[in-house]
Every structure is written in structure tokens, then in C-alpha cells.
């Protein structure tokens, strides 16, 4: 201790302290990130090679030959396999047309090709991996806990039961009822388009599973009260009462006041 | 009154009651009341019947609803909320929905009936306005009707806020904002209502008192007076042969009108039951318990509050300023000003119109909307103005459905907020004047029958038919207000207000299509006299096109 006390005003002390601090945060970060990149599937060198070919043919125009990004598309180093699996797996990529945001369409590639492209992008730098199956099993999640998380983190844009909603300038948060468990997880993990990233420090994999369980529960449960009218709330109900309810009422009034001729 | 002693059981019972209550005179009087029959006269009835349904279903709900905000953990059958902390109010609403037999059905019926009630009230009010039924002697009843609209909005909103779910809490937060936006006293008013800082633990029980007692009591009282006035003033009627300002042509209450009305009530009841059985309304379980932090996308109020919400969505954010360091914010508060403006304009209209036209006579014959183009045009301008604000409340949903930018939707609504009423005014007025000219044409020259005839020398003509006298009367017997120039008062001076009145009168009635006079009608029919147009017949004559 005496040694430390004697040297604490040494000119190099600050540098040493900074170094120690950086090493510790960096080390801790590495530990956490490797944690989240724990890959569900191991990619072979051949996957990476095939993936690179597909990438160069289909993606490089916008994302650059080495996925370094161009002015038409972001760099993909470090986005991880999950991002590729989500974007290509939901058909958003390759982009069909430019617009406020990428649209869902029938995926253009097979599962195997998507996995190869994921392998290639994952090989460029560490990033979130395709989630493991145990976190995608909605039956193991707690929908009530997920509901609380969903209302706090997701409902703002996606609506309380995931019916979707508007964002600024033509962008929108899509309806979640038809989205697969894997893509729900990946969307939370990678924050595609306008969505914020919910990494494992925000929402643990178990919490993400709870959110998935909630989304599955509310989109698959039978509606207790009859037709859901899109689960859009009072606007749909108001339209219904004017265009169906009141129209029927006026029909009745006309019928009742009609004279037999 | 008969004095012979009754012999049958029914007769004895009737005599017993009559000698103590003496209601036969009243029943006789009321039973002979005449109501004209027209579909548009039944819209107010719809409002009355839905109100009765609201009372019936609402009473059912009070048996199980717990208006308290004590916290508990949900242990009911709805899995996605199992163990979630919530208020007793929300938990009891979930219990009504999932555990009480028939509870969800009655809850949905209550809510659908509320939406239909306000819709019926609205189009009933529009019918009154566009037909001029608010004119003397019915101005007070018009004001009561406006009070009923405001009370209906209050009843609806307090009910919407009771379940204490996320949606209703978000709605209350806006009310809190509206109140806090009132300059100077806003914060105090909000604290007074919520019993402290929003949301507090008092608001649900306070809203409950308002929703099940105070507002319905006021509604019942106002509806009672409203209906009493209908009996006192007698019902208005459309122009037609034999319809005068001194009579009412229609069906007596007993038996015809009462039977029809009773049947109509059950049809409305049945319709609402069908809707409630097949269509979800306000699935409270979706929204979760209220928590001030989350807000769901697509959070809207029920439709009748929507126009105020829409106004809040389109008002720009710079309407806030400081006076000596005190913030005066119109960003939210102005929704109250807009409401005051709309309700104020509605309330003032009958008096303004009477002042402008100098017409203070009683009116029991209705105007066809086209026959008062300026009033109809103002009405449509107001409808469009309301509808723009109303639509703006769902701008986010429209943006998603029509793949529009939400920002553009706001700009469009802002533009329409100003331009919409003006366009509606001009278009409506022109349409009305055009329809009036068409009416003149039909009266004077008959209508196109679609029959082409060939004359002996080869010429083709379309046969024009004329209406029966009854129909001609209905088309031509209307009052058409004229521009009344400024008139001097007894001292021979023209006051400033009289000048203004004259200017408004000119604006109102300068464009005018005069009703067909008897001379014009005779002259027109004389022209075609050779072809046997019989103006006195009820069968409808025929005449070939004369020009």
C-alpha cells in the first residue's frame, strides 16, 4: 500500500488508471457480448464461403463488396447472423423498392441460403446470433409478465395487442400477429429499421421469451366478445356503429314509416 | 265520466283506480295526440330507446362493478393477466367480462348502446337543424337538446374511464391535461378533480358517482322536459296538402303510434343485442391495468369525443407563451375553446337566424333543407368542420391503412380545418339552389317521363308529366326568406346593429330562388292547356313537351 501511495501522484498514474479502466470495461463488454453471440448453430467454412457468394451477388450493390456499406445501404460488419436471418427471412431484404421502410414479402431465398448468408455476415465481426430454440418456445414463457413488458416497451408503436401503428413520415410499426417466434426474437435483438434494440441487458432472453409468449397468446386466443374488428380500438368501433348500426336503424325507421301502396 | 257501477272484475279495478287517480282524462288527451309519420321523425325515438337500454344494462353492471382503486393481484381466469397488479375497478370489470354469466354480453350492449345513443342524438340534432325545427316556439327545446349532447358526452366519457384499464387511463390523462391547461386555475382544478396529483386513488369512485347518478339524473330530467315540450308544442310536419301551421296531420298515439313505438323499441333492442353478441367492443382485457407510463399506439377516445381529440392532434405546438414567466398553453386547453365555440354557435343559431330574418313567427311546418340554402350550407360547413376534426383523431390509423405519411395527414387535416367548411358552404349552397331550380322546372313544366312519342309529321318528343296537385303543393308551398334591408327605428335612425343585420341578411338571402306563384303556375299550365293538363285533377295529367 505504501508503494501505491507513494506513486499515486506519478505522471504516469493517470495513464495507468485509464488503461486499467478501459481494460475492465472492455473485458466486461467482451464477456457480455460473447454471451449474447452464443450461436445456436455452428457455421462451417463452406457456409461462409457460399454465403459470401450469395452476398456478393445479391447484397453487395448497396451494402458494399465487403459489407462495409455504401451511401445506399449500411455496413453490415457486426450486425450478426440474427439481423440477416430477420431481414432476409421476412423478405424485407433484398429491398424490393425504396420507400419509407422495407416491406415484408415472400422470402427470396431458401432457409439454407439464408443461413449461409448469416454465416458470412457473422464471420465479419461479432454480433447477435440466431436465437436458440429454448428461447423461442412460447409455452415456456410467462404471458402475464410478457404483457407488462410489452405494454411498457412495445405497445407505444405496435399497439397493446400488436395490431401495429403509425410512425412518422410514412413509416409504421407492423402488425405482429403473424410474425414467427424467431423473427420476433430477432427483431427485439437487432432493432430492424426504426425499432430500438432490446439487447440482453435490456430484456434478458427469458424476458424476450415472455414477450413472445404474450404476443402469441393475444393473437391466437379466441375472441371472447365476438368479431375483433381488427383490434384497433374505438375508431373501428365508431365506424362500425355509424356505418352498420346507425345504417340498420335508419333502415328500420324507413321500413316502419313506409306506407303500403 | 260514467257513474254506473261496474260489474266485471276489470271494470271494478278500472273504476277503483279511476276514482282515486283520475288518469282517464290524461290518457284520453295524450292518446289523441297526433304524431306525423316520417322516418326522420323517428331518430329522436332511437335516442330515447337506446337511453332506456343504457339504464337497464347499466343497472346490471352496477351489481358487480367495484368502483375502487385498491391494488390487488389478478387471480381470475384470463391467463395473460394472471398475477398482474391492478385496481379493484379493473379486476371487477374483468370479472364481469369473464366470470359473471352474461356479463360480457351486457357490458358490450351497454357500450354499443352508448355509441348508438350518441349517434342517434347527433343525427336527430342534424335533422332538427336542417329542417328549421328549432324556430319559434321550439328554441328552448333546441337548447335543451344541446345540453343533452353535452351531457351525453359527459356520461360517455365518465363511463369510458371507469374500468381503469390502460385505454381509459390514457383518456383521463388527456382530461387532466385539458384541465391543467386552463390558465391560472388549471392545476387547482385538476387537483380538485383527482384529489391530488394525477392519477391518485379517488378518481374512479368520483367518476362512478358522476356516471351512475349525477349525469344520468340530469339526462333523465332534461329528456323529460325535452319530451314534454314535444307534447306542448306538438310535432312539426313536412309541407304538404292539408298541412297547415295550425294542424298536425298524422297518426294518434293510441293505438297506432304507441304500437309502432313499442315495436320500434324492441327492434332497436334486438339490433343492439345482435351487435353485442357478435362484435367485440372495448376488450378491456387487451389493454392491461392502467399505469401512467405506457401509451398504446392507436389510443383513441370513443367516437363522440373524437373530434376534440382530433383537434388536439392537429393544433401546432407553438400556441404556448409566457406572461411574466407564467406559462399560458393553448396546446391542449384550446380543445375546450373549440368545444365552447361549436356548442355556442349551435345554441345561438336560432336567435341569430330570427334576428337576421326579422322572422319571429311560430313555425310548425318544416323547411325542406334545399329551401333554405344558406342555413343548409352553414350546417354542412359545420358538419364538415366537425368531421375534419373527427377524422384527424384517426389520422394515425388512416396513415397506416392508406400508406400515407402521418405528417402529411396532419398537414392535410390542418388545411381542411380551414378550407373544408368554406368548400362545403359553397358547394352545398349551389346544390340547394340548383335543386330549387329543378323543383321550379318540375312544377312548371312537368317531369321527364322517359316516354318518346312520334307525332304524325315525324317529329319525336318526350312526354312530360305533371305532378298531382298534392305533390305540386308539397314542392311549392314553402317560405323563402328574403333580404330585409336596414330599416330605421321609430326615431328615423338606422342603428349600427341594424346595418350589420342588413349586411348579414344580404349575405344570407341575396341568392334566392323564389317559390312558384299561383300566377306562374296558371300561366305555365295555360301554355299547355290544349293538351289537357288538368291542374285540378288528382290523377296527374300529361303534356307533351311544349318548347
UniProtKB/TrEMBL annotation, chain B:
Q: Which UniProt keywords apply?
A: Membrane, Transmembrane, Transmembrane helix
Residue intervals of the Cytochrome b/b6 N-terminal region profile domain: 13-239
User: What spans are recorded as compositionally biased (Basic and acidic residues)?
Assistant: 519-533
What the entry lists under Pfam families is as follows: Cytochrom_B_N_2
From which residue to which does the signal peptide run? none
State the organism of origin. Answer: Brevibacterium pityocampae
Q: Please list the cofactors this protein needs.
A: heme
- Record PROSITE patterns: CYTB_NTER
Q: What is the lineage of its organism?
A: Bacteria, Bacillati, Actinomycetota, Actinomycetes, Micrococcales
What name goes with this protein? Cytochrome bc1 complex cytochrome b subunit
PANTHER family, per database record: CYTOCHROME B
| Domain of life of the source | Bacteria
**Which InterPro entries did the record assign?**
Cyt_b/b6_N (IPR005797), Cytb/b6-like_sf (IPR027387), Di-haem_cyt_TM (IPR016174)
Q: Where are the transmembrane segments?
A: 46-65, 111-130, 142-162, 174-196, 208-232, 264-285, 332-356, 377-403, 409-428
Amino acid at each position: 500500500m505504501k508503494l501505491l501511495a507513494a506513486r499515486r501522484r506519478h505522471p504516469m498514474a493517470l495513464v495507468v488508471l485509464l488503461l486499467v479502466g478501459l481494460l475492465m470495461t472492455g473485458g466486461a463488454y467482451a464477456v457480455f457480448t460473447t454471451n449474447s453471440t452464443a450461436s445456436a448453430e455452428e457455421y462451417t467454412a463452406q457456409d461462409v464461403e457460399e454465403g459470401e457468394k450469395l452476398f456478393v451477388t445479391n447484397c453487395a450493390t448497396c451494402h458494399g463488396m465487403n459489407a462495409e456499406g455504401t451511401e445506399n445501404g449500411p455496413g453490415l460488419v457486426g450486425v450478426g447472423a440474427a439481423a440477416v436471418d430477420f431481414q432476409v427471412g421476412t423478405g424485407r431484404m433484398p429491398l424490393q423498392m425504396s420507400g419509407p421502410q422495407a416491406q415484408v414479402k415472400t422470402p427470396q431465398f431458401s432457409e439454407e441460403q439464408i443461413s449461409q448468408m448469416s454465416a458470412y455476415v457473422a464471420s465479419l465481426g461479432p454480433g447477435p446470433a440466431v436465437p436458440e430454440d429454448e428461447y423461442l418456445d412460447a409455452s415456456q414463457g410467462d404471458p402475464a409478465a410478457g404483457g407488462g413488458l410489452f405494454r411498457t416497451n412495445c405497445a407505444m408503436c405496435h399497439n397493446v395487442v400488436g395490431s401495429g401503428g403509425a410512425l412518422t413520415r410514412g413509416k409504421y410499426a407492423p402488425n405482429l400477429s403473424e410474425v414467427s417466434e424467431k423473427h420476433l426474437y430477432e427483431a427485439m435483438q437487432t432493432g430492424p429499421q426504426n425499432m430500438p434494440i432490446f439487447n440482453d441487458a435490456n430484456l434478458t432472453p427469458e424476458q424476450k421469451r415472455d414477450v413472445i409468449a404474450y404476443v402469441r397468446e393475444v393473437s391466437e386466443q379466441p375472441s371472447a366478445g365476438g368479431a375483433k374488428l381488427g383490434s384497433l380500438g374505438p375508431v373501428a368501433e365508431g365506424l362500425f356503429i355509424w356505418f352498420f348500426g346507425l345504417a340498420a336503424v335508419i333502415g328500420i325507421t324507413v321500413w316502419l314509416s313506409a306506407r303500403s301502396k | 265520466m260514467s257513474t254506473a257501477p261496474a260489474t266485471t272484475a276489470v271494470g271494478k279495478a278500472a273504476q277503483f283506480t279511476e276514482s282515486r287517480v283520475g288518469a282517464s282524462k290524461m290518457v284520453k288527451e295524450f292518446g289523441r295526440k297526433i304524431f306525423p309519420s316520417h322516418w326522420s321523425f323517428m331518430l329522436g325515438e332511437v335516442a330515447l330507446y337506446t337511453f332506456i337500454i343504457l339504464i337497464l344494462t347499466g343497472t346490471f353492471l352496477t351489481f358487480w362493478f367495484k368502483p375502487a382503486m385498491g391494488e390487488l393481484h389478478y387471480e381470475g381466469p384470463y391467463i395473460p393477466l394472471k398475477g398482474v397488479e391492478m385496481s379493484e375497478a379493473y379486476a371487477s370489470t374483468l370479472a364481469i367480462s369473464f366470470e359473471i354469466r352474461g356479463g360480457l354480453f351486457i357490458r358490450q350492449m351497454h357500450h354499443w348502446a352508448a355509441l348508438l345513443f350518441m349517434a342517434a342524438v347527433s343525427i336527430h340534432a342534424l335533422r332538427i337543424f336542417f329542417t328549421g325545427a328549432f324556430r319559434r316556439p321550439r328554441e328552448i327545446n333546441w337548447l335543451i337538446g344541446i345540453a343533452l349532447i353535452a351531457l351525453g358526452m359527459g356520461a360517455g366519457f365518465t363511463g369510458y374511464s371507469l374500468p381503469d384499464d390502460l385505454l381509459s387511463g390514457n383518456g383521463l390523462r388527456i382530461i387532466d391535461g385539458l384541465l391543467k391547461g386552463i390558465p391560472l386555475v388549471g392545476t387547482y382544478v385538476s387537483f380538485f378533480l383527482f384529489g391530488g396529483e394525477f392519477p391518485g386513488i379517488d378518481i374512479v369512485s368520483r367518476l362512478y358517482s358522476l356516471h351512475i347518478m349525477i349525469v344520468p339524473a340530469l339526462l333523465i330530467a332534461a329528456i323529460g322536459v325535452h319530451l314534454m315540450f314535444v307534447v306542448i308544442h306538438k310535432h312539426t310536419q313536412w309541407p304538404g296538402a292539408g298541412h297547415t301551421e295550425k294542424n298536425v296531420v298524422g297518426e294518434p298515439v293510441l293505438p297506432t303510434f304507441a304500437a309502432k313505438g313499442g315495436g320500434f323499441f324492441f327492434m332497436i333492442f334486438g339490433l343492439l343485442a345482435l351487435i353485442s353478441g357478435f362484435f367485440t367492443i372495448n376488450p378491456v382485457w387487451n389493454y392491461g391495468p392502467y399505469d401512467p407510463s405506457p401509451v398504446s399506439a392507436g389510443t383513441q377516445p370513443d367516437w363522440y369525443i373524437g373530434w376534440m381529440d382530433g383537434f388536439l392532434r392537429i393544433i401546432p405546438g407553438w400556441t404556448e407563451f409566457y406572461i411574466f414567466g407564467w406559462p399560458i398553453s393553448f396546446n391542449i386547453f384550446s380543445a375546450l375553446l373549440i368545444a365552447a365555440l361549436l356548442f355556442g354557435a349551435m345554441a345561438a343559431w336560432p336567435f341569430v337566424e330570427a334576428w337576421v330574418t326579422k322572422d319571429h313567427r311560430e313555425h310548425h311546418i318544416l323547411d325542406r333543407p334545399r329551401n333554405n340554402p344558406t342555413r343548409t350550407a352553414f350546417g354542412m360547413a359545420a358538419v364538415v368542420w366537425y368531421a375534419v376534426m373527427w377524422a384527424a383523431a384517426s389520422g394515425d390509423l388512416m396513415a397506416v391503412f392508406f400508406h400515407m405519411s402521418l405528417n402529411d395527414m396532419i398537414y392535410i387535416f390542418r388545411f381542411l380545418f380551414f378550407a373544408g367548411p368554406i368548400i362545403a358552404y359553397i358547394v352545398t349552397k349551389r346544390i340547394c339552389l340548383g335543386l330549387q331550380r329543378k323543383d321550379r322546372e318540375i312544377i312548371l313544366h312537368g317531369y321527364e317521363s322517359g316516354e318518346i312519342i312520334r307525332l304524325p309529321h315525324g317529329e319525336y318528343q318526350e312526354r312530360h308529366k305533371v305532378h298531382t296537385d298534392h305533390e305540386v303543393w308539397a314542392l311549392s308551398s314553402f317560405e323563402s326568406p328574403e333580404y330585409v334591408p336596414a330599416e330605421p327605428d321609430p326615431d328615423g335612425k338606422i342603428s349600427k346593429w341594424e346595418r350589420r343585420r342588413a349586411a348579414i341578411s344580404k349575405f344570407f338571402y341575396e341568392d334566392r330562388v323564389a317559390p312558384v306563384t299561383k300566377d306562374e303556375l296558371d300561366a305555365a299550365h295555360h301554355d299547355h292547356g290544349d293538351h289537357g293538363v288538368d291542374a285540378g285533377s288528382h290523377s296527374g295529367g300529361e303534356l307533351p313537351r311544349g318548347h
